[in-house]
Every structure is written in structure tokens, then in C-alpha cells.
Amino acid sequence: MKNVTISACQFRVEKINSFQEFEEQVSVLLQDVPVDADYVIFPELFTIGLLTTFSDFDQTDVTETIRLDQFSAEYRNLFSRLAKERSQTIIAGSHLEKRGEQYFNIGYIFSSDGTYVEHKKTHIFPAEGNWKTQEGDELEVYEIGPAKIGLAICYESEIPEVSHILAEKGAEIIFCPSYTFTEHGFWRVRHCAQARSIENQVYFVHCPTVGNPGAPISEGYGRASILSPCDSPWPANGVIAEAETNKNMVITGIVDLDELHENRKTGAATTHFDRKRRKEMYSKYEPYTVQ
Fold first, then answer.
1. Residue 287: cis peptide before it, omega within 30 degrees of 0
2. Count of alpha carbons within 13 Å of 6, Cβ hemisphere only?
3. What is the CATH number of the domain that holds 132?
4. Which are the catalytic amino acids?
5. Residue 290 lies in a domain
6. Does any domain span residue 288?
7. Which domain holds residue 79?
8. Greatest CA separation found in the chain?
């Protein structure tokens, strides 16, 4: 058995007055994270509450989300320190950040020594265009902590090719920080996360931003979950752990990597292998036609 403990921090955005108050919100959730957790994940754009620290925030519109970049250094320093202090790998959700003259929705993975890697969201949700957000062009798998892991930020979970590429590159766990504004949006990501888990035979961790701090910040709706393929080693519905809807809380679950690899070989549904087995047949049809 190769057990991995995962904690998902479902973060409820509130009006705050300073970065220090944001740090306190983070600290409150971390109090409920076991000290032996191998991975800790926060949601997509959960830093958005920092917009309320500006005195004119309620007189602005959604395009002002780019002002979050002013907190980039403090955000990175905070999670670098926390990862090192706790000796844990922290997937610090994502943050809107300026690079050159462009803005990207960037997900960060902080190692237990305080160093980090980043992933620029490759498929932005249509509404993100209002934030001047550009798309990244790289999909990587990282051997950080006890597993091979990848990031699929929110809408990326709805694009099957993203998770398939990560699985082909060796991902055993795909972490999905998300921020969905409606119940419809939540279920799109949740259902796709479960589908990606089944079709690639990987664990999938969905962690949303929730709360309603008021316009111009969009309401966050969601329910964090740690998901598995739907096969006999796991719960029939593929849900290892699940949060309460829209509550500020932490869920923790344990997954077995050896069990995952065995299931890929001997499971009732060997989709990880079978979706590649008929490549010659696929090649007769668009978009797989061999030129």
C-alpha cells in the first residue's frame, strides 16, 4: 500500500480590510488540516477577497479583478513560508498575476522546502476574458511529494484533452482548484472531474471558492470532493470525501496509489488502457485523422 493523505480547503470569501486578515482566514482553515497530510489544496482565485481591501471596491466592476496582482509577492511569500513551516506540499489554488503586459490565472504548487512551480491556466472560462486573462501553453506533471501530480484549473477539467495529457505524462492525482459562480457551473466542473477520474483512472481533487462578499465579486458556489474511479476498490459513487455546500471547511481523505495502478491493470473498467487501444480505428475519423 502506498497511502497518500489529501486535505482540500474549501475557502469562503469574505470582505476583509488587509492582507493580514486574508492570512488569518488561511490559518483558520489550516488548523483543521492534519499535520501528516501529504497534500493541501486551496481553490481557484481564492485571493479575490483581497479586492475588498480597496476603499472603492464596491464602485468598480469585474475588470478591476486585475488589481489582485498587487498582492502577488505577499501571496507567494505567505505560502512558501507555510509550506516550509508545515513541511507539507500546498497547492495554493490560483492567483491572477501580471507577467510582462499580460495577465494569467496561475496555479502554484509549493513544496515542503518552500520552493514552488507554477501552471498557467491553458483554457480560460469565457467570463475570464473580462479580466484581460491570457492562456498558458504548457501542461506538466510534477513529482512533488509522494505522488505524480498535475493541475487542471476549473474550466480545464471540462476539456478532456487536458487531463488525458496529464495522465499520459504519468499523473496519479489531478488537483482542480475551481471558482464557479452558479450551481450550474459547479455541477459542470464536478461531473467533468468525475468523468476525468473514470476515463483516465486517476484520483481527482476538486476544491472550490465559495461565499458571497458582494458585487462586483461574483458569488462562489461549490462543494469540495476527493474523487476516485467508480470501481470496486473505492466507494461505488467514486466519492472518497466530500464537503458541505458553500461552507468554510476542510475535508481530508486517504488514497492508495498502488490500488490505482492495480486497478488500471485488473479493474472491471480498464479505461486508462482501453482508450488508447483502438488508435488505428480513431485515426479514420476527425479530429484524429492521420494526415
1. yes
2. 33
3. 3.60.110.10
4. 44, 121, 154
5. no
6. no
7. 3-282
8. 60
